[in-house]
Structure formats: C-alpha cells, structure tokens
Amino acid sequence: MTTSIQSQTRTSPAPTRPNKLAQNVNAIFAIAFRDFLKLIRDRARLLSTFLFPLIFIGFLGGGMQATFGDASGYNFLTFVFTGVLAQTVFQSTAIGIISLLEDRQNDFSQEIFVSPISRYSIVFGKILGETLVALPQSIGIILFGFVLGVSINLAQLLGLAVTTSVAALYGGAFGMMVLGVMPSRRAADQLFPFVFLPQFFTAGVFVPLNSLPLPLEIVSLLSPLRYAVDITRGLFYNGTADFDFVVLYPVWLNVLILGVSFAVFMFIGTFLFVRAERNR
C-alpha cells in the first residue's frame, strides 16, 4: 500500500509554473486596454483632444497658405498639417503618462510594481495604452485634412499610419523620462507645458528649420519632437519636389535617432519611477 502511494507520488506531474513571457505580454495588453477604456468613457477628453489640432491646422495652416502660399508656390497647409499631426500624437502620449502619478496616489502603481512582472513591461503597457488613445486623434486629424483639401495618396496614408504610431510610442517614452523627476501630479501639470511648448517652435511644427541661428539650432537638436516631426514628413514628402526643402534628415537616420533615444528614455524613466516607488 505504502509502495503504491509512493509510486503515485513520484509519477504525479509537478505543478507547472506560469510562463513568464506570457505573464508580461498579458500585463502589457491589460494595462493598455485599461487606458483605452478610460478614454472611451471620458467624452470631455475625446472632444478636447481634437479641438486644438484642428484650430492649428485650420487657422494657422490656412492663414499661412492664404498669406504666403500663392506668392511662394509652396503649400503651407500641408506643411502645418504634417507637423501638427506628429506633434499631437507625441504630446498626447507623453502627457497621458501623467496618469501614472494618479495611479501612484491611489496605490495602483505600487500594486502592479510589486507583482511578478517586468517593470519594463508595465511601463511599456502604459505607453502602448496611451498610444492607442492617441491614434483616434490622428484619424480625426487626417479626416480633417481631407476636408481642408490636403492631398493625400494611398502611399502617404500608409506612411502616416506608421509614423504616427512611431511618434506616439516615442512621445510616451519621453514622457516617462520627464515623469521620473516629477514628485506629484500638480508639479507635472505645472511643468509639462514648459517642456512641450518650446518644442512647437524648435521642432519645425509650424515653420521650416533650414536656417536657424546657432543657439536655436542647438536647442532644436535637443528637442525630441524634432525627430518625430521629421520622420513623419520624410515618409509623407518622399518622392515629391518639396522633399529637400521640408525634410531635414533621411528616414534611416531618423529611425536610428528615434530608436536609440527611445531606449535611453525608457531606461531612465523606468529607473527613476521605480526608485520613487521604492522610496515611498
């Protein structure tokens, strides 16, 4: 009898441990889906996310086209459209990361950071969620561009689908790095505008950056938004006569810069945020 029980014990399979990769993937999508649901339920945010981009494109782009476009033969409306599109998704994702501070206050972030999940998976899930939030904005802006008469062919449309996703992910990584040094939601709300507003002008969102004075050129080179805008225009204007006037760097160089800085932002931002969680 005893021998039979021992034999059964030896032959019974050991309990299987959950696959760590599957846990991390599930966590990424669960966190991302949570943020997307928050957007769907927040109608005020849905409305406000479309308002300012449409004003910039309609009034600023349309005004510049009416004032300078006919005389120069250059389409300023399309230029502003591509810049505002990249800027909107970049900024939306970066600012959306602020909600991690709200999660910190209600202890949600502390609960997930002590779970057996990679911290980078948690942060990437948050960035992916804010990217999903930003993409509906890009669709609305593109539709508005069609209404205003911006000429977009199928290749350009596919290029915008890729670059807006890249710009959104990149903005989330940058926002994570900035968030790492923010002690509270109030501080983030006060300081984030000073981080992003200067980049509107130093990243070439509204005007070309072909001939900047040296001090402004240095500031512009340090602006992450510059590269998100440039890769968007690089694919959009590829093969057109305006490419050399509008685009600063070849696409491969922008991809390299974005990839390296994305990894740096993710590492620094995650390290600083996790350290702040441990010091609570």
The largest β sheet comes out as: none
| Overall pLDDT confidence | 78
Radius of gyration: 23 Å
Give the helix level as a range of percent. over 70%
Determine the structural class based on helices, strands and strand pairing.
mainly alpha
Shape: globular
Query: Which ranges are low-confidence, i.e. pLDDT below 50, for 5 or more consecutive residues?
Result: none
Count the domains: 1
Instruction: Assess the beta-strand content as a share of residues.
Output: under 5%
Number of strands: 0
Give the SSE order as H and E letters: HHHHHHHHHHHHH
The termini sit apart by: 56 Å
| Quaternary structure state of the chains depicted | single chain
Q: What is the number of helical segments per DSSP (H or I, 4+ residues)?
A: 13
Provide structural commentary:
By secondary structure, the protein is mainly α. It has one domain. It is built from 13 helices and no strands. The N and C termini lie far apart (56 Å). The model has no long low-confidence stretch (mean pLDDT 78).
